[in-house]
Amino acid sequence: MPLMVAIPLAGGFLIPILARVTGVRRGAAALPIVMAGAMLAIAVVLLVASDGPIVLWIGGWTFPIGISLVADGLSKFLLVIIATVSLVALLFSMDYMQRYTSPALYYGLFMLMLAGMNGVVLSGDLFNIFVFIEIAGISSYALVAFGTEADELEASLKYLVLGTIASAFLLVGIAVVYNVTGQLNWDKIAEVVQQAGGPTMPLYVATAFFMMGFGLKAAMVPFHAWLPDAHPSAPAPISAMLSGVLIKACGVYALARVVFSVFGASTVLGWVLVALGVGSMVIGVLLAVGQWDFKRLLAYHSISQMGYVVLALGTAAVMQASGADEAVVGLAIFGGLFHLANHAVFKSLLFLCSGSVEYATGTRQLKALGGLGQRMPVTAACLRVAALSISGVPPLNGFWSKLIIVLALVLGGFYVLAAITVAVSFVTLLSFAKVQRYVLGGDPSDAVQAAREVPLGMSLASLALAVLCFAGSLVILPVIKGRLVDPAVSVLQAGPRPADAPRAAAVVASDGPVEEVAAGPADAAKESP
Amino acid sequence: MTLSMLPYLLAFLLLVVGLYAIVAKRNVIKIIVGLAILDYAVNLMLVLVGYRSSGTGAPVAPILTGGLAAEPDLVAQAVDPLPQALVLTSIVIGLSVTALVVALAIRLYEKYGTFDTERMRNLKG
């Protein structure tokens, strides 16, 4: 398990050095691809290996001194998503990055970002989450500015300033939590909070800081200003990584952890999440409709789609706090997490397609494009699949997750929210109809005359994700769902562990990853929708 | 409101000053200074969290010199060392962020010939 952090961290520094020493340019992508493949393998092994959380105390030091890495259902679920998207993005980068100078530095930063994200997902305590968020953040600031043109630099500056404010807020929140509870470990904080009979006033202040901090990282609507600049300015594979996994790992995952596993789901926090989610969903999609820059439009849709996830988690928290039916709560969480995974797949695919289009034509203005349907058949097919998927057209994966979210909202009695969700989905469809009309349909414009299909590596990467768009629908089959998503759902649904839960108290003294069979995760929400 | 709250309030004030500089200033360099102020305000807050009065006179440093037997009540009296460790990490992170943002500012100056953010407006909407 520590390899998940160690491999990309080592890669981040080795790749530029090796490239400098050996003078290789073309083959610089080989090592990161092998590494990402290895990480995917490890993530899958972790997923299959056990149901319970795996806890590793670094260096064999246990609780008050040691630092723990925890891979429970939710962490493993996100690890698989991160590894998949990064593998595909690296495959795509191989040809795409030939246009940029110093690809070795690019791959180095890419691996650093990956190390940061894996670390965020695996950390067992608050402060390490902060450190890993910063690692991922700093490398992504640099990657956004990678083109070093005026736009990229400006976007990167905006991203960096807002990202740093977010981190400062997080650190204030951590300081308050440490002052109140005297702990930094997730489980220990939860234990102290539970013993005190729920969060007190100072902890709500801390939560407000966390909400602002993680909300900025996740680009929820009042805090979204950086995303539509930063994501389009990055090279296309990095846009795919930023939209596909970074805002999830650093924002939504951490937010969900804080709300569900540490402070315990409460009505207030739930409604705050619902407000953030609905705001992002509606405002994101309305701003997206008016965009004429291909990647900028996609970036606004990222905000909107993440709104779905946060909305689903928020309603789950509200329902859990008010003692609603366990199955409905589980359904809402499942819908949110499933949509998170689906969004990682189709939004990465959309960004890769936009990268292919830009690679072939040199522009990403929708009005300058057209007629690519015949010129670039593979890219066009992938783009169609992704666009249908994000708009929720059956039988693609986006349809199922949206259906489950709407279903959970209706079952939970949130009829207005369900109606808004459906309406936003419809506007999304409109917006992507526009994309298809202007990019694929019509006569080839001047900019498109010379366009050819992109090189093999890029089409292969897009095709792999397009297949995943279809395969994603299979997740609702109980056999796959039970393995992949249910453990993650039950982690959130179980809430803060009781004080005698073995996870925090466990003594794992050797330096290899030792499993402990924790009290079985609550077996709720097993029935398929 | 007791006097012991005063350092926290001052640290919070510093945080607000930093935020104000970031939000209200147009010059990139001033924004960077604002970021630095924000960073230090948060660090200060963390150190304050760990502060513990020894009851008599100066605070005690959390350094064990003569073994636990010689200083049995050190743990109860000394300043909490953990936030200080956190602050060290946070300072390093702040340094790398500052280095990166200064590099960005230099490149931006080369492109636009100005540090004024009002005149860097290629991106909006």
Task: Write up this protein.
The complex is a heterodimer of chains A (529) and B (125). With 529 residues, chain A is an all-alpha fold. Chain A has one domain. Chain A is built from 21 helices and two strands. Chain A has helices at residues 3-22, 30-49, 73-96, 103-122, 126-144, 150-181, 186-195, 201-218, 227-233, 236-262, 267-289, 294-321, 326-361, 372-375, 377-390, 397-411, 415-439, 456-471, 478-484, 486-494, 502-505; strands spanning 54-57, 68-71. In chain A, α1 (3-22) packs antiparallel against α4, α2 (30-49) packs antiparallel against α3 (73-96) and α10 packs across α20 (486-494). Chain A starts with a helix and ends in a 24-residue tail after the last helix. The model of chain A is unreliable at 498-529 (pLDDT under 50). Helices cover 66% and strands 0% of the residues of chain B. Chain B is elongated. Chain B has a single domain, classed as Helix Hairpins, CATH 1.10.287.
State the helix count of chain A.
Answer: 21
Order of helices and strands of chain A: HHEEHHHHHHHHHHHHHHHHHHH
Shape, principal axes of CA atoms of chain B: elongated
Total beta strand runs of chain B: 0
Number of domains of chain A: 1
Labels describing this entry:
heterodimer; A: 529 residues; mainly alpha; two-stranded antiparallel ribbon; globular; disordered C terminus; B: 125 residues; 5 helices
